[in-house]
Design a protein that fits this description.
With 243 residues, the chain is α/β, with parallel strands linked by helices. The protein has nine helices and eleven strands. The protein has an eight-stranded mixed β-sheet with strand order 3-4-6-7-8-9-10-11. It has a three-stranded antiparallel β-sheet with strand order 2-1-5. The longest helix has 18 residues.
């Protein structure tokens, strides 16, 4: 069984769209969004995947979501059938933190026919071996101090080192202010992350904020040899589910 986020009560968040971030930006893909996360970013734009009643982890919007309306459990075969019906050749598995459900994901992915698999992860959880062998690309987004997560939970040293050694992994750091760049530089140096696999993305859930941050962030990427990524889906669809 897989535990998924919802677009509407009872409707799993499985949809086709353009990948909005990172190395595959602009590519038509299928998405499946899983529920639950081991971290709690104060600016998380998918807090409906983890901030349920009784969860006292902080969030800037201070919203609390009803679990029954925002989480649904489905058989792996059902999820696979819904994904295949979208007619795409690539699947992006996102969350929440999808690697928390690695074994069930491995069973689901094995049912997909001819699809390339891309996984979005916060980088703190090791992939299940049965899933790992089926993944073409990892989008690893380690959470910096401004996320509000304790460093010992968000920046697991051996995990970051393992991702840096894996050529399938690209790193996407969410930054909000110029002061965040020193932390990115330190992590790059500590783990020998190649610049061509290091993307920076402004934090924001509206076009105006993203454009403002892109003005200075793009120049910093140019100066350091890092890649810049926008959030295409925000510009196209706004901060909405199922996009």
């Amino acid at each position: 069984m897989l535990t998924l986020a919802t677009t509407n009560p009872g409707e799993p968040e499985i949809f086709a769209s353009l990948q909005g971030e990172g190395a595959s930006v602009g590519r038509p893909v299928a998405f499946v969004r899983l529920s639950r996360c081991n971290l709690a970013c104060t600016w998380c734009d998918t807090a409906y995947t983890w901030r349920f009643e009784g969860d006292n982890r902080s969030h800037r919007d201070d919203l609390v979501f009803e679990r029954s309306a925002n989480q649904v459990t489905l058989e792996e075969a059902d999820v696979a059938a819904r994904i295949m019906a979208l007619g795409q050749d690539r699947l992006v598995i996102t969350g929440g933190e999808p690697l928390l459900q690695g074994a069930a994901l491995a069973r689901m992915v094995a049912l997909l026919d001819g699809m390339s698999i891309e996984v979005e992860t916060n980088g703190s959880v090791a992939p299940h071996p049965a899933l790992d062998s089926q993944v073409a690309q990892y989008n690893v987004s380690p959470k910096l101090a401004h996320s509000g997560n304790p460093g010992e939970l968000a920046l697991v040293v051996d995990r970051l080192a393992a991702w840096a050694r894996d050529p399938r992994a690209v790193f996407k750091f969410v930054v909000a202010a110029p002061g965040d760049l020193a932390e990115v530089e330190a992590l790059q140096q500590a783990h020998a992350i190649p610049s061509e696999r290091l993307y920076l993305m402004g934090e924001g859930t509206d076009s105006a904020t993203l454009r403002e941050r892109a003005r200075w962030l793009s120049g910093e990427c140019l100066a350091r040899g890092w890649r810049f990524t926008d959030r295409l889906h925000i510009h196209l669809y706004g901060d909405t589910r199922g996009t």
